[in-house]
Structure formats: C-alpha cells, structure tokens
Amino acid sequence: MKLYCIGIGPGGEEQMTLRAVRALEKCDCVAGYGLYLDLIENLIEGKERVQTGMTKEVDRCTAARDLAKQGKTVAVVSSGDAGVYGMAGLLLEVCENDPEIEVEVIPGITAACSGGAVLGSPMTCDFACVSLSDLLTPWEVIEQRLRGAAQGDFCIALYNPASKKRTDHLRRACDILLETQPPETVCGLVRNIGREGEEYTLTTLGALRDTTVDMLTTVFVGNSRTRVVNGRMVTPRGYRGV
Ligand code: SAH
C-alpha cells in the first residue's frame, strides 16, 4: 500500500520536480486543498479528488489513509515542500499504526527558495524560517524564535505573515526584530510566487512594519550584510574581489 506526500512547489507544473510528476501519474486519488488541486489540474485529470477545506488537514489525511487501505494509490499534495508547514508530518502521524502503508515523502521547492529566487539571492548564507501563524504555535513561542533569529543575524523568511483574521502579526513581528535590527535592514516581499499575478517589492524593515500583506505572500528579512544589487535583494556570501 502506497501513500505519497507530494510537495508541488509554489505554483503549477513548471516548478514541480520530475519525481513529483511521476508519482502523481501513478496515483488513483489525490487529496489536497482545492487551490493546490486546481494548480495541477492538468496532471490529475480523471483521478479521484479528495478535496477538503483549508483547516481540515486531519480529515484530509485520514481520508487519504483510508483510501490507501482500500488498495488505492493515493497522493496528499502540499504547496511548496510537504515537510515545511505542510502535511508530511501529520500524514506520518496519522499512519503511525498502519505499518502496511508505505508513506513516501516527495520534496518540493519551498517558498523561501522560490521566493528567494524571485528577489535575487537573499538566503545565500544561514537563514531561518518562521511562520507567523499562531493557530498551532503559541504567539510567545513565535516571538522567542524571532528574537533568536535576529540575535543570530539570520536572514529570515516569514511564512503566513497574515490571514483574513490576523492582520497585525507582521507589524508585531517587525517590532520585535526592530528591537535589535536597524530599520534600514533590506527586506523583500513576494506574492503569488510561480502563479499568475506574481509580484515582488523591496523595502526596509522600518517600512515593512506598516506594510499590509496577505496570506499569499512570503516576507524576507535580510541580515546585516544584505544589500540591494541592481534592484535585487542579495546577501553576499563574502567572496573577495567583487
Ligand atoms: N509548504 C509551503 C508553506 C505552507 S505555509 C512551502 O513549503 O512553501 C503557507 C505560507 O507559505 C503562505 O502564507 C506564504 O507565506 C507561503 N507561500 C506558499 N506558497 C506561496 C506562493 N506561491 N507565493 C507566496 N507565498 C507562498
């Protein structure tokens, strides 16, 4: 019995790995959030869709597990990488007591990498990812991680910077980073990476504080060496002679 957990990358087919495409071809059923299934529509034509809402992750994984137990080849798809704020961990937990199911996790390009490429090369050196969603992580823990990342002078990719209900998380996160980082720290925003309407903006930490973003955006905060090179966000690796 086979259950794939597939990271489909940021957008459509073009940014998926060949391994992901081949695994999808083998599947009878595909489970995922509706938007993601729409993005890979061409690849899943004729396959059974298990479509659940955004907050129904546990239902989606149990439905996928039960279909696999019936002998079907099933894929659970996540955007980006399935192991980065995705479904891979949950799926492995849901299948903990079903050793007959072989779960194969297939990696995908996470937003820190795909968005980084849009901006230039902000994540050249050590970086951290922090999700600003406090649905599953208490806000105090998020604050602690932000302070740790700032103290270590990491470049930071902020995932889930806002949602319909939470509009002030980015401002609160910036205020924490501004406790130690200068307001002129180079930052970037990328929206709809790899999808229709892809757009990016370069800004500073001071201005980011007052910027409105949505959940389709990934925010990049540079480290103390990050600079703008011909309109792109670059964290130099440190090579001499340039
Ligand atoms: N598993 C995904 C992350 C899911 S969390 C990954 O590895 O990329 C959801 C957050 O990811 C969004 O709020 C946003 O911050 C970021 N994200 C995912 N896909 C994106 C895209 N195509 N464009 C911009 N941000 C994206």
Order of helices and strands: EHEHEHEHEHEEHEHEEHEEE
In the CATH hierarchy, the architecture of the largest domain is 2-Layer Sandwich
Which strand order does the major sheet show? 3-2-4-1-5
Whole-number count of domains:
2
CATH topology grouping of the largest domain:
Methyltransferase, Cobalt-precorrin-4 Transmethylase, Domain 2
Helix content: 25-40%
Measured by DSSP, the beta-strand proportion falls in 25-35%
Q: Span from first to last CA?
A: 54 Å
Find the structural class using helix and strand composition.
alpha/beta
CATH level-four homologous superfamily name of the largest domain: Tetrapyrrole methylase, C-terminal domain
| Bound ligands | S-adenosyl-L-homocysteine
Describe the SSE topology.
Blueprint: E1 2-7, H1 18-26, E2 29-33, H2 34-39, E3 48-52, H3 57-69, E4 74-78, H4 88-94, E5 102-106, H5 111-119, E6 120-121, E7 127-131, H6 139-151, E8 155-159, H7 169-177, E9 186-191, E10 199-204, H8 205-208, E11 217-221, E12 227-229, E13 232-234
Parallel strand pairs: 1-4, 1-5, 2-3, 2-4, 6-13, 7-8
Antiparallel strand pairs: 8-11, 9-10, 9-11, 12-13
The structure holds S-adenosyl-L-homocysteine.
S-adenosyl-L-homocysteine binds at residues 10-11, 78-81, 84-86, 110-111, 115, 159-161, 190-195, 215-218.
